[in-house]
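Here is the promised in-class demo. Please do not try to memorize the tokens; focus on the logic of going from shape to residues.
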């Protein structure tokens, strides 16, 4: 058993999750790793964003299902010294690894639109000549479903 799997199972046990929930969490982490062909402890926030977009756009999962899967991935990372799966709970700034290589960048600011986006992000978007859309996550997902071509996204999921 890998160290990451052991930590995840310990965290789920600590939270008193059922055997079914534990099995589902393990399945989600396995699918995430298979999607990239790498061990989950080698994957970071960029891969999580890519995977979220894949689940929403290509798999056509509902936002609430994606939230559940991201929660499972975060649980898998619990206890790790450097948490690679970021929550973006603090204001989004240019210190983040923002995917600028696109025509349009959609930022989903959570179910209630509460994720603050710093003005420097808007200035940087203009500098990169990227159309920036800052919307509550549900609206951001609808935009992505309508026309995902040459569009990158940062989606904040509220959990």
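The designed amino acids, position by position:
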């Amino acid at each position: 058993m890998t160290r990451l799997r052991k930590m995840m199972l310990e965290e789920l046990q600590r939270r008193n999750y059922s055997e079914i929930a534990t099995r589902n969490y393990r399945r989600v982490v396995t699918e995430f790793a298979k999607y990239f062909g790498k061990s989950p402890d080698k994957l970071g926030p960029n891969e999580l964003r890519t995977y979220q977009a894949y689940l929403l756009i290509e798999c056509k999962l509902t936002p609430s299902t994606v939230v559940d899967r991201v929660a499972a991935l975060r649980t898998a990372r619990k206890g790790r010294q450097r948490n690679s799966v970021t929550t973006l709970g603090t204001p989004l700034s240019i210190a983040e690894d923002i995917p600028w290589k696109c025509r349009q960048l959609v930022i989903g600011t959570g179910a209630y639109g509460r994720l603050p986006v710093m003005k420097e992000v808007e200035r940087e978007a203009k500098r990169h000549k990227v159309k920036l859309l800052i919307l509550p996550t549900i609206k951001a997902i609808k935009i992505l479903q309508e026309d995902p071509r040459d569009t990158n996204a940062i989606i904040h999921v509220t959990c």
